[in-house]
Amino acid sequence: MDVRGIKNEITEARFDDAVALLRSVQCEMIGHSRGGLLDHLIGTYELLKEWGTEESVCLAGLFHSVYGTETFRGGKDPLLTRNVVRSAIGAQAERLAWLFGTKTNRSFWKAARSLSNGEVRVDLEHRVTGERLSCSKAEMISLISMVLANAIEQGSRNALPERSNPLSLER
Fold first, then answer.
1. Phi-psi region of 92 (alpha: psi -120 to 50; beta: other; left: phi over 0)
2. How far apart are CA 80 and CA 30, in angstroms?
3. β-pairing, 121-125 with 132-136?
4. In this structure, how many other beta carbons lie within 10 angstroms of the beta carbon of residue 74?
5. How far are the Cα atoms of 34, 66, 115 from residue 120, in angstroms, in the given order?
6. I need a labelling partner for 134 at 20 to 30 A (CA). Which of 35, 75, 98, 119 fits?
7. CB under 8 Å to 100, separation ≥6 — which residues?
8. In this structure, are residues 135 and 151 in contact, taking their beta carbons and an 8 Å threshold?
9. Residues 89 and 45: beta-carbon distance below 8 Å
């Protein structure tokens, strides 16, 4: 077996273990985007994977809402501590998932904009404490990918059928 095959087996095993952890806290029973949270999390992971994103970012996408978010409070489970999540998906992926869930949207967009000004570190704001969360350029680029995958995945679930779209020009 070549190195890629071994890596794929490790990646698949980690993914399976991570999904088992999400099932253990009944993520599939939590409503989200006209379906269950688990389906949304897996869909976000799959989009990131299809784009060729690093595995740590894909795994962060799989857990992006487990700490809740500014607009979605339903994912937070007391059994999913940072240590438990870190053990399941790795330190880098857990940090990205934590940043995704704890940031304010306003600070995210401000930080994303500042990257175009040549910044190498940006600050996000913790949505509960207001604390400053320092974020590297690489982390911010990963978060941008996650935000985009999250929005696309949600949009595909929430889209109106083509025929009933009131903005459609077709009659």
1. alpha
2. 15
3. antiparallel
4. 13
5. 38, 28, 7
6. 75
7. 60, 64, 65, 69, 143, 146, 147, 150
8. no
9. no
82-134 residue pLDDT tens: 899 999 999 999 999 999 999 999 999 999 999 888 878 899 999 999 999 99
Q: Please report the pLDDT score of residue 119 as a whole number.
A: 78
Task: Give me 34's structure tokens.
Answer: 């006209």
Q: Is 35 exposed, middle or buried (0-12, 13-18, 19+ CB in 10 A)?
A: middle
Total residues found in the chain within this entry: 171
The pLDDT tens digits of the residues spanning 122-166 come to 999 999 999 999 999 999 999 999 999 999 998 876 654 554 444
**In 3-state terms, what secondary structure has residue 132?**
strand
Separation between Cα atoms, residue 69 and residue 18, nearest integer Å:
20
For helices 55-62 and 91-102, what crossing angle results, to 10°? 50
Model pLDDT for residues 17-55, shown as the tens digit of each residue: 999 989 887 776 565 566 678 998 999 999 999 999 999
Q: What is the value of pTM for the model shown? A: 0.82
